[in-house]
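RECORD TYPE: protein structure
NAME: Fructose-1,6-bisphosphatase class 1
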Amino acid sequence: MEITKTLGEFIIEKQADYPDATGELSSIFSSIRLAAKIVHREINKAGLADITGAVGNENIQGEQQQKLDVIANDKFKAALAARGVVCGLASEEEDCYVHFDDDRSKFGKYVVLIDPLDGSSNIDVNVSVGTIFSVYRRLSPMGEPVTEADFLQPGDQQVAAGYVIYGSSTMLVYSTGNGVHGFTYDPSLGIFCLSHENMCYPENGTIYSVNEGNYVHFHDGVKQYIKYCQMEDAKTNRPYTSRYIGSLVSDFHRNLIKGGIFLYPASSLHPTGKLRLLYECNPMAFLAEQAGGVAISGVESRTLELEPSELHQRVPFFVGSKNMVNKLERFLREFT
Ligand code: AHM
Ligand code: MG
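PREDICTED:
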């Protein structure tokens, strides 16, 4: 790959578009970039070091914490705390939000929400996982402790969002509300290089991604849409291809590049859906919309406009190519 620009250079270049920028957001990206490199290193030796498997604890949502979940959470938290630019953090792996109260951090104007290692049940079987992050401006006065309200903001208030995919190569993909850009990590140089500038969701696609094992538990609208995907029709390139990794970042990343739809509906198993609004759905919805895609949580329910009620809230989530999500919405409207 020819190296055009590094992530650091790209961010500095973009910062020049905002004359009032103080560099705090750039520092947040530096922290995330550093932690991502460390997590990349840890994941790559996961089979050798004794870091796969469960810790033996359950997190707040009753799920087994994997060792790498805990490692990733610690690394991102430490990297963000060290630069003193973030006043608080909420993580899928922490029961409550964290307030950084050293002299520099407490005057930081941003909070970060993070899913440090999404899809972590895939680590033991060598399947791609990811980190998802989002950044908001704090609402509480600077210098004061952060409050829960700083984190319970609707997704359309995000200042930045992104993910790191630890796949066949490691990539960092982010948006600050001005398009979506992807950077591939070169481990031999230790730098992220611009590889996917201005990523755009194809308007149509032929991939649908859903845990079809749960089919019997889905509502009728989703069932009918899945049947539609499987029906033969040359004009619309159906039947579509079914692809489901079970790792949101990987499923999202593939569909963003190739065109497709990802579904994690509510069901009798997960009455409010499984994915977390703050750590998973909102950042992905922000990226999807920035790339020209659509993200909804139901009929006429744009995910980014949902008012969060609690830190670990779960919602149904449908995201992908514009025409595919719009079609799904028509099924949801008609059959539920
Ligand atoms: P996690 O954050 O505990 O890893 O769970 C989220 C993951 C997503 O990455 C993925 O889309 C989903 O759970 C898969 O769930 P399921 O196994 O029910 O299909
Ligand atoms: Mg997750």
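COMMENT: The longest strand covers residues 110-118.
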